[in-house]
Fold this sequence. Notes:
- Chains A, B: Residues 134-232 bind DNA.
- Chains A, B: This is Response regulator transcription factor.
- Two copies of one chain form a homodimer.
- The first copy, chain A, has 234 residues and is α/β, with parallel strands linked by helices.
- Chain A has two domains: 2-126, Response regulator (Rossmann fold); 132-232, Arc Repressor Mutant, subunit A (Orthogonal Bundle).
- Chain A is built from eight helices and twelve strands.
- Chain A is elongated.
- Chain A binds chain B through residues 1, 4, 87, 89, 92-93, 96, 101-102, 109, 111-112, 115, 118-119, 122-123, 125-128, 130, 132, 147-149, 160, 162-163, and chain B through 87, 89, 92-93, 96, 101-102, 109, 111-112, 115-116, 118-119, 123, 126-127, 130-131, 175, 178-179, 181, 183-184, 187-188, 193, 223-226, 229.
Amino acid sequence: MEDQKKRILLVEDDPNFGTVLKDYLMMNDYEVTHAKNGMEGFEKFKKDDFDLCILDVMMPYKDGFTLAKEIREKNTDVPIIFLTAKTMKEDVLRGYKVGADDYLNKPFDSEVLLMKIKAIIQRKATETISDSKQFEFKIGSFDLNSKLRFLRFKGGEPVKLSPKENELLRLLALHENDLMPRELALTKIWRDDNYFTSRSMDVYIAKLRKYLKLDEKVEILNIHGEGFRLVVNT
Amino acid sequence: MEDQKKRILLVEDDPNFGTVLKDYLMMNDYEVTHAKNGMEGFEKFKKDDFDLCILDVMMPYKDGFTLAKEIREKNTDVPIIFLTAKTMKEDVLRGYKVGADDYLNKPFDSEVLLMKIKAIIQRKATETISDSKQFEFKIGSFDLNSKLRFLRFKGGEPVKLSPKENELLRLLALHENDLMPRELALTKIWRDDNYFTSRSMDVYIAKLRKYLKLDEKVEILNIHGEGFRLVVNT
DNA sequence: TCTCCTTTTAACCTTACATTAACAAAAATG
DNA sequence: CATTTTTGTTAATGTAAGGTTAAAAGGAGA
């Protein structure tokens, strides 16, 4: 399915190797963001959600370990793979210390890298998300459970939401009574901001409005040229 | 949890290397059982509970992969590390397919091995919290005993479940009323996530639904693109 | 070998989703 | 006020995922 491609942040300063690796990963159905150095890597990391980070150790200005430490401060869960130039024991040990999930010595076999990526991402997937609270929203008389993807009105029969309906409503709920910029939804949910995705989003707004009609206190307002606002009147 | 020493099963046919490695691990506070070949390895595995298996790939009579497969049939969770003589890509890939957690190329640095052991055992420990050793479930009017692989309706005649039926239902039961991601079942039970294993899983869902029809309060719901949900209506 | 049991693969069908088109209605622009 | 841009809404289309049954393939034991 298109929108569940795993996202990889690749930080590698060697432009040749970097682009080749990026292309190779993309050919294997990963969505890859390539940063050319540690700084850029951290900037890109903050901007997006990634399923995996692949960091070159040897980089000017900011090496892979330092970057990994910064990443760990932001996110304790995201898997990290280090690329080390040679079998430097200290590097490997240091890597594990920063919370690496694996490391690979250059030159490495690309298929092996793929295997590792697969194994690591799958491993993370098996770690169950226990804090359900994060997925539950109250919207007027509605309960939205965005993990199980349903919307329930006053404890009645829950209505199933499609992935896009669900994500959009969740994003609106996160900004309840506040502006939810079009651009935000388009980049976060559709991952692309163009005429068609924009129209697609409008279609979904219409669908959500239909669901939410049951509670006349709840409505989605448009702010022309800006975005939408989910309001709950009291 | 346990302040107990972690137990390692080491299967290595080279007597010199084997004993040295065993001693080294014991010096680092692991309890090590050393088997000299695949047969012996499997015998010892059946007799005891281990926290980790370290298997040499190249062994007479029964190689490490075959042994791993047998071990996996008994225990889907125990971490496995392979020792491969050289960087054989096929070996590495085959290892991952059997559910290896990692591999090391001989000769390897002993400290690196220690690091890996630590990381893997640590990882499993956190995983096991949510995925506790539980084998008996009440599902509506059903009793599932996943150790003996049977499902009983209201104390009647138990129905025997096949291994896959059993594991799948168990996984669903562990997540009762919650999402059981497709990916989770595929990686945990099928150890591979592709079109065919996915379809195979759907077939098993159909089988389970047939069994569960006896109790109209119990159903397996699908969450499109995400997974399944075993719900028990009250 | 021939069973029996389990699992995978195939086939066919249904449902779920996302996108695009089409046209209507507001809102902005100038 | 005429025109362009943005949004509202419904419907049509194409594709992917899931439901179900049956046949084929594998595998262990007799």
